[in-house]
Amino acid sequence: MSKPSAPRRLYTPRTSRRFTPRLDPEALGQVTERIARFFGTGRYLLLQTLMVLTWIALNLFAAHWRWDPYPFILLNLAFSTQAAYAAPLILLAQNRQENRDRVALEEDRRRAAQTKADTEYLARELAALRLAIGEVPTRDYLRHELESLRTLMADLQSARPDADPARAIDGVERGARKTL
Protein backbone atom coordinates (compact mmCIF):
# COMPACT_ATOMS: atom_id res chain seq x y z
CA MET A 1 0.00 0.00 0.00
CA SER A 2 1.21 3.47 -0.75
CA LYS A 3 1.36 6.27 1.70
CA PRO A 4 -1.56 8.73 1.37
CA SER A 5 -0.42 12.06 -0.01
CA ALA A 6 -1.04 15.32 1.73
CA PRO A 7 -4.04 17.26 0.48
CA ARG A 8 -3.16 19.91 -2.05
CA ARG A 9 -3.97 23.45 -1.20
CA LEU A 10 -5.10 25.59 -4.07
CA TYR A 11 -3.53 28.76 -2.71
CA THR A 12 -0.03 27.16 -2.64
CA PRO A 13 1.77 27.10 -6.00
CA ARG A 14 3.23 23.84 -7.16
CA THR A 15 6.95 23.51 -7.27
CA SER A 16 8.62 23.31 -10.61
CA ARG A 17 8.94 19.86 -12.09
CA ARG A 18 12.18 20.74 -13.78
CA PHE A 19 15.41 19.70 -12.17
CA THR A 20 17.32 22.75 -11.02
CA PRO A 21 20.73 22.19 -9.48
CA ARG A 22 21.26 23.90 -6.18
CA LEU A 23 24.79 24.89 -5.37
CA ASP A 24 25.91 25.52 -1.85
CA PRO A 25 27.81 28.83 -1.98
CA GLU A 26 30.12 27.72 0.83
CA ALA A 27 31.04 24.46 -0.90
CA LEU A 28 31.56 26.26 -4.21
CA GLY A 29 33.73 28.84 -2.46
CA GLN A 30 35.86 26.12 -0.87
CA VAL A 31 36.38 24.46 -4.24
CA THR A 32 37.39 27.76 -5.86
CA GLU A 33 39.84 28.42 -3.03
CA ARG A 34 41.44 25.02 -3.51
CA ILE A 35 41.78 25.62 -7.25
CA ALA A 36 43.19 29.12 -6.71
CA ARG A 37 45.68 27.78 -4.16
CA PHE A 38 46.71 25.03 -6.59
CA PHE A 39 47.26 27.59 -9.38
CA GLY A 40 49.75 29.37 -7.16
CA THR A 41 51.97 26.37 -6.45
CA GLY A 42 55.19 25.19 -8.01
CA ARG A 43 53.58 21.79 -8.55
CA TYR A 44 51.01 23.36 -10.90
CA LEU A 45 53.73 25.20 -12.83
CA LEU A 46 55.72 21.98 -13.18
CA LEU A 47 52.66 20.01 -14.36
CA GLN A 48 51.70 22.73 -16.82
CA THR A 49 55.26 22.91 -18.19
CA LEU A 50 55.40 19.13 -18.63
CA MET A 51 52.03 19.14 -20.37
CA VAL A 52 53.08 21.91 -22.78
CA LEU A 53 56.39 20.19 -23.58
CA THR A 54 54.58 16.88 -24.15
CA TRP A 55 51.99 18.63 -26.34
CA ILE A 56 54.64 20.32 -28.47
CA ALA A 57 56.79 17.16 -28.72
CA LEU A 58 53.85 15.03 -29.83
CA ASN A 59 52.75 17.61 -32.40
CA LEU A 60 56.23 18.11 -33.82
CA PHE A 61 57.65 14.58 -33.84
CA ALA A 62 54.73 12.14 -33.87
CA ALA A 63 53.58 12.48 -37.46
CA HIS A 64 50.43 10.36 -37.10
CA TRP A 65 49.31 12.18 -33.87
CA ARG A 66 49.45 15.73 -35.17
CA TRP A 67 46.19 17.17 -33.99
CA ASP A 68 47.61 20.70 -33.50
CA PRO A 69 50.24 21.66 -36.13
CA TYR A 70 53.05 24.19 -35.57
CA PRO A 71 51.38 27.46 -34.63
CA PHE A 72 49.67 25.39 -31.88
CA ILE A 73 46.32 27.12 -32.15
CA LEU A 74 44.58 24.49 -30.01
CA LEU A 75 47.20 24.87 -27.27
CA ASN A 76 46.68 28.66 -27.30
CA LEU A 77 42.93 28.09 -27.09
CA ALA A 78 43.43 25.78 -24.10
CA PHE A 79 45.56 28.42 -22.36
CA SER A 80 42.99 31.12 -23.11
CA THR A 81 40.22 28.97 -21.69
CA GLN A 82 42.28 28.17 -18.62
CA ALA A 83 43.05 31.89 -18.09
CA ALA A 84 39.38 32.77 -18.58
CA TYR A 85 38.46 30.42 -15.73
CA ALA A 86 41.50 30.99 -13.52
CA ALA A 87 41.06 34.75 -13.12
CA PRO A 88 37.45 34.60 -11.81
CA LEU A 89 38.32 31.67 -9.54
CA ILE A 90 41.21 33.61 -8.07
CA LEU A 91 38.98 36.67 -7.62
CA LEU A 92 36.34 34.53 -5.86
CA ALA A 93 38.99 33.16 -3.52
CA GLN A 94 40.24 36.70 -2.80
CA ASN A 95 36.70 37.89 -2.07
CA ARG A 96 36.18 35.04 0.37
CA GLN A 97 39.50 35.87 2.03
CA GLU A 98 38.48 39.53 2.30
CA ASN A 99 35.20 38.47 3.93
CA ARG A 100 37.08 36.30 6.43
CA ASP A 101 39.51 39.15 7.11
CA ARG A 102 36.61 41.55 7.66
CA VAL A 103 34.95 39.17 10.14
CA ALA A 104 38.27 38.64 11.93
CA LEU A 105 38.82 42.41 12.07
CA GLU A 106 35.36 42.97 13.54
CA GLU A 107 36.03 40.26 16.12
CA ASP A 108 39.40 41.85 16.96
CA ARG A 109 37.73 45.25 17.37
CA ARG A 110 35.06 43.77 19.61
CA ARG A 111 37.68 41.98 21.68
CA ALA A 112 39.79 45.17 21.93
CA ALA A 113 36.76 47.17 23.06
CA GLN A 114 35.96 44.52 25.68
CA THR A 115 39.58 44.52 26.86
CA LYS A 116 39.55 48.32 27.09
CA ALA A 117 36.31 48.25 29.09
CA ASP A 118 37.75 45.59 31.41
CA THR A 119 40.94 47.61 31.87
CA GLU A 120 39.00 50.79 32.65
CA TYR A 121 36.87 48.90 35.15
CA LEU A 122 39.94 47.47 36.85
CA ALA A 123 41.55 50.93 36.94
CA ARG A 124 38.44 52.36 38.64
CA GLU A 125 38.40 49.50 41.13
CA LEU A 126 42.10 50.01 41.87
CA ALA A 127 41.54 53.73 42.41
CA ALA A 128 38.64 52.95 44.76
CA LEU A 129 40.83 50.53 46.69
CA ARG A 130 43.59 53.14 46.98
CA LEU A 131 41.09 55.65 48.35
CA ALA A 132 39.73 53.08 50.79
CA ILE A 133 43.23 52.09 51.91
CA GLY A 134 44.07 55.77 52.39
CA GLU A 135 41.42 55.91 55.12
CA VAL A 136 42.72 52.81 56.95
CA PRO A 137 45.36 53.51 59.61
CA THR A 138 48.80 52.24 58.69
CA ARG A 139 51.20 50.35 60.93
CA ASP A 140 53.44 53.41 61.33
CA TYR A 141 50.48 55.55 62.32
CA LEU A 142 49.35 53.02 64.95
CA ARG A 143 52.90 52.62 66.25
CA HIS A 144 53.21 56.39 66.60
CA GLU A 145 49.88 56.65 68.45
CA LEU A 146 50.78 53.80 70.81
CA GLU A 147 54.15 55.41 71.48
CA SER A 148 52.37 58.70 72.29
CA LEU A 149 50.07 56.88 74.70
CA ARG A 150 52.99 55.14 76.39
CA THR A 151 54.84 58.41 76.89
CA LEU A 152 51.65 60.02 78.16
CA MET A 153 51.17 57.18 80.66
CA ALA A 154 54.78 57.37 81.72
CA ASP A 155 54.39 61.12 82.27
CA LEU A 156 51.23 60.58 84.30
CA GLN A 157 52.88 57.90 86.39
CA SER A 158 55.94 59.99 87.06
CA ALA A 159 53.75 62.92 88.10
CA ARG A 160 51.85 60.72 90.61
CA PRO A 161 54.05 57.89 91.80
CA ASP A 162 51.42 56.68 94.31
CA ALA A 163 48.67 56.42 91.62
CA ASP A 164 47.39 53.08 90.49
CA PRO A 165 48.53 52.30 86.86
CA ALA A 166 45.11 50.78 86.04
CA ARG A 167 43.40 54.02 87.01
CA ALA A 168 45.88 55.96 84.95
CA ILE A 169 45.03 53.83 81.95
CA ASP A 170 41.30 54.42 82.54
CA GLY A 171 41.95 58.14 82.71
CA VAL A 172 43.94 58.08 79.49
CA GLU A 173 41.19 56.15 77.77
CA ARG A 174 38.58 58.64 78.96
CA GLY A 175 40.73 61.50 77.75
CA ALA A 176 41.22 59.81 74.41
CA ARG A 177 37.48 59.29 74.05
CA LYS A 178 36.82 62.95 74.80
CA THR A 179 39.23 64.05 72.07
CA LEU A 180 37.58 61.78 69.52
From TrEMBL:
Indicate the transmembrane segments per the record: 44-67, 73-93
Instruction: Cite the Pfam families for this sequence.
Output: DUF1003
Keywords, A to Z, come to: Membrane, Transmembrane, Transmembrane helix
| Alphabetized InterPro entries for the sequence | DUF1003 (IPR010406)
Q: Show the PANTHER family listed in the entry.
A: INTEGRAL MEMBRANE PROTEIN-RELATED (PTHR41386), MEMBRANE PROTEIN (PTHR41386:SF1)
The name of this protein is DUF1003 domain-containing protein
Q: Which organism is it from?
A: Mycobacterium gastri
